[in-house]
User: Fold this.
Amino acid sequence: MSSTKRDAATAFSAAAPDSVSSSTAGKYLSSIPMGAPDAILGIAESFKSCTDPDKVNVCVGAYRDSSGKPWVLPSVKEAERRMLDDAAVTKEYASIVGDARYVELALKFAYGQEASMDVIAGVQSLSGTGACRIGGHFFAKFVGEGTPIYIPNPTWGNHVAIFKESGLDVRRYRYYNPTTNGLDYDGMLEDLGDAPDGSIILLHACAHNPTGCDPSMEQWRAISKKIGAKSHHVFFDSAYQGFASGDAEADASALRLFVEEGHNVALAQSFAKNFGLYGERTGTFSVVTNSAEEREAVMSQLKLIIRPMYSSPPIHGANIVKTVLDDAGLTDQYYGECKTMASRIQSMRTLLVDKLKAAGSTHDWSHVTGQIGMFAFTGMNSAMCDELTSKYSIFLTRDGRISLAGLNDGNVEYVANAVHAVTDGKSITA
Assistant:
């Protein structure tokens, strides 16, 4: 240790009795409890430290190619190349609401090219998480603090903390039926009907996380009707548009249906999964209003929410999405790449089930192939998941969710054999 570092360490460890450190001001620090670790990130750390050469990570929700490597979309790389050559692209602050052209293109991507921007109040956000946080704050402020927000059971784990921190009363509606390993449609409708009038209803726009079970369009229509009859507020979370089916237009069908049927929907939109911009924190939050005047009022209030929260959003990811969606050729290229990702995920669904059958499993795994999106909700219980990790070094969440992006031709048979070993002779339904 250098003398300078030694002197600094001595200064911190041997403060004089009459120094500031002897006051009571800092004593509260000793009473702060250790916070609970994030479950998914903790699993990722355990995977990194595991030395088993056969280890497999099917936990984290990030796309991997057929070699198990992260994939930066070629359209994204081309957009960045163009940005480097564009003198108009700088590192200046964005406005509070973000890049206006990016927001317009992002909202048309979600709501449709013919959507009227005159009545949609939209702002750039810190991906989907930030959009949910802005939305939660907005609803708490203008619908009322303590308003019930109903989220599906199960849902993305961060939803609970986000909306609690926003000042809303987080409640659940039935969504998944573990007896059938499918959508609990009747239970969902019953719970939406029993919710107090004017509640906030959080809906996954497509590729429900973690179950991969989406309502049919006929079911979405009935859900829309039930919500409308109860004067509920609709809040869509859209994290997988285009990534779910490979068709961004089809994946936006539920959102657009609700708008067509007159709901003043709020939307949290993320470009993490479908553009592969995980670390760029790129998204939007928007509200469909009834007039241009209402839009301006909502925009003014969103600015007041954002300014003390993070002031203005990052620009790089927004510039990438803007560059891609503002160019017909790059947009077409992007759609093809998005289809590639969705197709690989679907192929892993089919291959996993085929390998399970080949391993001798007699369970009905058709729910896995019937699901959509990045995840397979297998029906395995926590004990089975723990055994997969402890015996086979397969790392996953304890609810039985498998990230299909973590599978490839080199490990899917190993995973299938392990899943068969821990489920053989045991039930995978409640």
Notes: The chain is about 45% helix and 15% strand.
